[in-house]
């Protein structure tokens, strides 16, 4: 289910939202590597609680597009590359973006309220955990119909939560908030009645 077999061109065509998000994150990371301008870009978007307290509310969004090093970027973008396409395909572009952005934003909001003024953070992990949460909601509704999804997603969620609390320098508030928000949004999006309404054929206007 999560094995990517598409060619590069097929992947871009079939999953434009995921492709765009990966591209934006990579481009911004490359910008942060440039002399002078790189530091300015990073500092301008850094999730710094003390600056949010002063009214710089864009920092509740911009940290989602910044990463603290290549491995940080690689881990998050690889997760998006593998798991994002299935959610984009199942939910549609607009709903996928809703899960991604709201999970990421609420992850930043949780970070602001949980940690002290000196706390700073970057990374798309809250949004990535939102994707896992949305899949968790899909598992909740499908249960026996998609056993393969359940066998893959539940261990990944469990492992992700465990690593959140035992790994170094991990923003636990963003991870857990993103996971919960993604799950709650998924409960709404993937409710059986709503899915049926998606699939109803649209009436053809008479001429």
TrEMBL record:
Membrane topology of this protein: Multi-pass membrane protein
UniProt-listed GO biological process terms: proteolysis
Alphabetical list of SUPFAM superfamilies matching this protein: Rhomboid-like (SSF144091)
GO molecular function: peptidase activity
Domain Peptidase S54 rhomboid: 55-190
Domain of life: Bacteria
Gene3D superfamilies to which the protein is assigned, alphabetical: Rhomboid-like (1.20.1540.10)
Record's subcellular location: Membrane
InterPro entries: Peptidase_S54_rhomboid_dom, Rhomboid-like_sf, Rhomboid_protease_S54
Pfam name, any one: Rhomboid
Keywords on record: Hydrolase, Membrane, Protease, Transmembrane, Transmembrane helix
Protein family: Belongs to the peptidase S54 family.
Name this polypeptide is given: Rhomboid family intramembrane serine protease
């Amino acid at each position: 289910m999560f094995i990517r077999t598409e060619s590069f061109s097929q992947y871009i065509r079939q999953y434009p939202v995921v492709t765009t998000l990966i591209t934006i994150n990579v481009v911004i990371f490359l910008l942060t590597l440039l002399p002078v301008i790189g530091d300015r870009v990073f500092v301008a978007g850094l999730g710094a609680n003390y600056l949010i307290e002063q009214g710089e509310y864009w920092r509740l969004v911009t940290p989602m597009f910044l990463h603290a090093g290549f491995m940080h970027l690689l881990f998050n973008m690889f997760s998006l590359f593998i798991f994002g396409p299935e959610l984009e395909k199942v939910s549609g572009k607009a709903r996928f973006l809703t899960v991604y952005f709201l999970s990421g934003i609420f992850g930043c909001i949780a970070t602001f309220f949980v940690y002290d003024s000196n706390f700073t953070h970057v990374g798309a992990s809250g949004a990535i955990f939102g994707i896992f949460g949305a899949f968790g909601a899909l598992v909740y509704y499908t249960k026996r119909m998609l056993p393969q999804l359940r066998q893959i997603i539940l261990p990944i969620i469990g492992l992700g939560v465990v690593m959140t609390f035992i790994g170094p320098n991990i923003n636990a508030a963003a991870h857990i908030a993103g996971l919960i928000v993604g799950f709650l949004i998924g409960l709404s999006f993937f409710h059986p009645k709503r899915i049926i309404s998606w699939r109803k054929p649209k009436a053809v206007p008479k001429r």
